[in-house]
Write a structure and sequence with these properties.
Blueprint: E1 8-15, E2 25-30, E3 35-42, H1 48-68, H2 75-96, E4 106-107, E5 109-113, E6 125-131, E7 135-140, E8 143-146, H3 153-160, E9 185-190, E10 196-200, H4 202-205, H5 210-219, H6 225-238, E11 245-252
Antiparallel strand pairs: 1-11, 2-3, 3-4, 3-5, 5-6, 6-9, 7-8, 7-10, 10-11
Length: 253
Amino acid sequence: MSPTPVSIQAAALSDCGRHRPINEDSWISDTVLGLYAIADGMGGHGSGDVASKMATQAIQEIYKQALQTPNSTDVTELVRGAIEQANAEVFAANQASNIEPGNGMGTTLVGLYIPTPDHSGSPNSGIVFNVGDSRLYRYRDDQLTQITEDHTLLREWQLNKEPGPAPPGNIIMRAIGLFESVKSDITPISLQRGDLILLCSDGLSDMLSEAELHQLLKAGESGSIKALCDGLVRQANRNGGVDNITALCLRIA
C-alpha cells in the first residue's frame, strides 16, 4: 500500500526588526504549488528589496508554468531551472544599470518544494534548495536539525578547519543575481506527520540560539502555526532585532 500524501499547515511572518528602515525580505507560501521560500535581499549599489521580490516572483512563475504541464520536467531540474531563472533576471537588472558583476543587488534564497502527485513518485518527500545563509530547519521527535548549509566565509573556514581567527559571519559566498551563474544546493528531504519545518532569514537565526529555537518549536508542536511564527519573530526582536526577520513555518499533518 502506498503512503497517504501529507497535508500542510503553513504560516509566515516578516518584520523589519528594530534597526532597519525597510524590509528587504520576501517570501512565498503557496500550498497549491507546494512552494515555500524566503529571499533575503542585499542592497549593494541597488536595492535588496527589489532583488528579493524579483527572485521570488521569478521562481513562483516557473512553478506555475510547470503545474500546467505535469510530468514534463524532472523535479530536480525544475528546481534548478527556477533558481537559474531568478539569478538571470536579477543579474540582468544589475547589468542594465551598468553595475560590475559582484557589486550589484542580490539576494539569498532558501526554499522547500513539495511536489504535487503529478511531479513526484513519493507523496512524503520534498526538495530543499538554498543559496546563501538563509536556513531551513526540521523539528522531529524532539530533535532540531539544520538541513541547509550556510554559504558563508565563516562556514568555509569551519569546514576546512583553517588556522587563525574566525572570519566575520556575515560574508556571503553565494547569492542570487550577483554573477551570471549561481551554484545552489538542492537536497531531498523526507517528511512525516508531526514534522515542523522552519524556513528563516538570518535575521532570525542570528538572533536565536539553537537552544532557543528548539524550545520555541517544541512549545509550538501542537498550537497554532501562526502563533509559532509570531513567537519566533517576537523573540528575535527581544534579542536585538538587528536585521529584517522572516519566519515561515510548516506543520506536516
